[in-house]
């Protein structure tokens, strides 16, 4: 059986859902015919205890696309430090009263909002179907597990860090294994966070807290703790009370951790970069395009920038009557490579730098950088704008 669509989006995670909605939107996007394909159930709202810090520009894009009703907690500032509990914070971005650095959104709530918007879209859903093959000729042809041969002018790979579509397109990746894992959970704490994120660098890795909305259980924050793989595995074997005490210690008792409000998860940390963001009629977005250390909190934000840029270059191709699968990708590749290179390099270097040991010179360089920035308040605004995704050339959807 043969079918045709203008754009096939593979993968119905957060990036895939947003890509399908954006590229099919007739007022804010190019208004293309889009088919969304996933091996699982697209409308699934399975539990996801993770949190995403969305930039203000990303929130504006969601609002323009009619994706609303998201419970988002403003992150108004950040404190960064390292060393022992009696070491003062070495760097602080204070609350300026202006736009927040980010809005912290629980992934489960974000997915629910995207699925709600999907019900009122023209996107064609093909779930519980795998992509078994990809051929590229005058069009891209996807061989699906149900026997369908789906042709498309453009294939958007949003199928994650282990993207099968990327491999089928012949795109290779370079991977750096940090030999670390991240432990993620939501904590309940006695002290209010006041909208401030905390980040503590350790001898290896770091621990960060992201402020969340206060509920009936009390003040809450998401914890992302990166450490040696064996240290995280050992932490997961602790009793809940012992783990709570350990997390409180890692945060230097700054919040007074009293409990957990989400399951404890862990996953290996890698950085991954693809040789290119497109090939033939295939474009990569989100984690299929690159994976960076969670220290930056920018993983999904980079995916959103991918989607905004792709929507604009495809829209330009549609407006001028050009092929969206060729002309639509020329500007996309150039636009996105610069953005991801700078953030990925900075994040990997800072997160990998130990505070002491053979590579402590990197940790020392990090401390010097913190001190310089903290002594130059004029740089605070620039750093806030960079963290909020407000610098550089931005697609229209992000302005």
UniProtKB/TrEMBL annotation:
Domain named FAD-binding: which ranges? 5-317
| GO biological processes | ubiquinone biosynthetic process
**Quick check: keyword Manganese in the entry?**
no
Q: Which domain of life is it from?
A: Bacteria
Q: In which pathway does it act?
A: Cofactor biosynthesis; ubiquinone biosynthesis
Known cofactor(s): FAD
Listed A to Z, the keywords are:
FAD, Flavoprotein, Monooxygenase, Oxidoreductase
- Under the GO molecular function aspect, what terms does this record hold? FAD binding; monooxygenase activity; oxidoreductase activity, acting on paired donors, with incorporation or reduction of molecular oxygen
| Keyword Flavoprotein listed | yes
Q: Which family does it belong to?
A: Belongs to the UbiH/COQ6 family.
- Name the chain's protein: 2-octaprenyl-6-methoxyphenyl hydroxylase
């Amino acid at each position: 059986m043969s079918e045709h669509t203008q754009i096939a989006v593979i993968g119905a995670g957060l990036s895939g859902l947003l890509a399908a909605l954006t590229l099919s939107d007739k007022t804010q996007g190019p208004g293309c015919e889009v088919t969304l394909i996933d091996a699982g159930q697209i409308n699934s709202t399975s539990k996801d205890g993770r949190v995403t810090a969305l930039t203000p520009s990303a929130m504006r894009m969601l609002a323009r696309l009619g994706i609303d009703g998201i419970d988002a907690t403003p992150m108004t500032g950040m404190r960064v430090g390292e060393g022992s509990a009696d070491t003062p914070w070495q760097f602080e971005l204070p609350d300026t009263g202006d736009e927040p650095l980010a809005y912290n959104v629980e992934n489960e709530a974000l997915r629910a909002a995207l699925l709600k918007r999907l019900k009122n879209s023209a996107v064609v859903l093909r779930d519980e179907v795998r992509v078994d093959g990809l051929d590229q000729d005058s069009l891209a042809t996807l061989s699906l597990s149900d026997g369908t041969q789906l042709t498309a002018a453009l294939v958007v790979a949003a199928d994650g860090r282990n993207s099968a579509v990327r491999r089928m397109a012949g795109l290779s990746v370079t991977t750096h294994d940090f030999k670390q894992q991240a432990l993620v959970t939501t904590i309940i704490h006695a002290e209010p966070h006041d909208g401030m994120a905390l980040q503590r660098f350790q001898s290896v890795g770091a621990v960060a807290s992201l402020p969340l909305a206060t509920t009936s259980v009390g003040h809450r924050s998401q914890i992302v703790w990166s450490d040696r793989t064996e240290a995280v595995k050992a932490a997961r074997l602790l009793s809940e009370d012992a783990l709570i005490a350990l997390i409180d210690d890692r945060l230097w008792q700054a919040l007074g951790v009293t409990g957990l409000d989400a399951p404890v998860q862990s996953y290996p940390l890698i950085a991954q970069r693809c040789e290119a963001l497109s090939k033939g009629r295939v474009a990569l977005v989100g984690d299929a395009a690159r994976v960076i250390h969670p220290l930056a909190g920018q993983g999904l934000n980079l995916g959103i920038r991918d989607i905004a840029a792709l929507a604009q270059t495809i829209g330009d191709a549609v407006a001028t009557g050009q092929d969206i699968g060729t002309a639509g990708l020329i500007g996309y590749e150039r636009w996105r490579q610069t953005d991801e290179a700078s953030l990925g390099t900075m994040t990997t270097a800072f997160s990998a730098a130990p505070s002491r040991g053979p590579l402590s010179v990197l940790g020392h360089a990090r401390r010097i950088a913190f001190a310089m920035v903290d002594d130059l308040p004029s740089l605070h605004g620039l750093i806030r704008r960079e963290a909020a995704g407000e610098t550089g050339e931005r697609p229209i959807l992000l302005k």
